[in-house]
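Figure caption, in words: inputs first, then the predicted bound structure.
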Amino acid sequence: MGRHKRGTLDGMWSMPRWQTLAAGALGAAADLVAPLVCAACHTWIPSGAGHLCSPCQTGLDRLVRLPHCTRCGRAARRESILEHGCAACDSESHWNVGNVSALGPYHEPLATIVRELKYRGDTRCAAILAGRMAERLRPEPWLATVDALVPVPMHWLRRLQRPCAHAAVLADALAKALRLPLLPLVTRVRYAPSQTHIPIRTRRFSNVADCFALAHPDAVRRVPRRDARSRGPVLCIVDNLLMSGATVHEVSRVLRAGGAGRVHLAVAARTRSDGDAAVAGLLAAEAHGTASASSSGCAPADQPDERFMR
Ligand SMILES: [Zn+2]
Ligand SMILES: [Zn+2]
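Bound structure (zinc ion present):
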C-alpha cells in the first residue's frame, strides 16, 4: 500500500510527475469519449465545471433568489408576502401543510431541470435540485423539528411509464444532503390520470382523492421523534413540482390521519398561473432592486403549464 493519499492535496503534491501527466491525459480522453453537457440546455461544458453551463447556473441563481411565500410557495414581490401568506393564497384553503419551501418558480432553466429528472431520469438534476433545496431549507427554523422526509409516492403503473420515481430520487438526494431519514410512509393505492392533464383546479383535487394510503397502519406512529413530547412526528413531504396543491393535500391528509403532529412541504418548482411574463417581471424587479415592477405580484389560481404536459 503506497503512502500517497489519492484525492487529497497531500497525495497530489507527492504524486510523481509522470503519474500526474498520465492522469491528465486520461481525463482529457474521457471527456472526448463522453463529453460533459449542461443538464439543462445540453451545451458542452468543461470538465469539472459542475452540471450546468454558466448561463444556466446564472439563470438558476436568479430564480432561487426571488422571494417566495412560505404558505403557498409562489414567487412574489417582497411587499406582497406577509407573515401568514401572500395575496394569492390569502383566499385559498390550506393544504394540510405548515410551511412550504419552494426553490423557485417553474421557469427556465429550473423548469427544464425538473423535466429532465422526471422524463429523462437525469440524476444530475436531482443532485442540482437537492443541493439548492438543502441550502434553502437549512436556515428555516422549522427544519430543526423535522423527524423525516416523505416522498410523494408513484403508482407502479406510472413508474412503468417513467425512467425513475423522480420524487423519490429527489427526496433521497435531499435526505442525504440534510442528513435526515427518508421514509416511504405513504403508498399510492389508486391509479389516476396525471394532474398535468387536468386543467380545472377543483378537478385535480377530486382526481387524487383516495389515491394514497399509509404503507402500514402504524407507519407514522413508529417514526422516531426528536421531541418525545410532541403530538406526533414532524414530517416534510418532498416533491418536484407544486401546481394546485391537490396531491400534497391528499398525502398530508393521510399522514395527519396516521398520527403526524405536523407536516411541511419542500418542492423544487412552483407554478404560477400568469407564467413566464410574471416571473420575468419579478426578475426585472429584483435586478433593479425594486419591488415595484409592473408585474402583478400574485395570481389567484394556477393553471397547468403546457410545457409540463406530456
Ligand atoms: Zn446550460
Ligand atoms: Zn402565498
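The chain has a mean pLDDT of 79.
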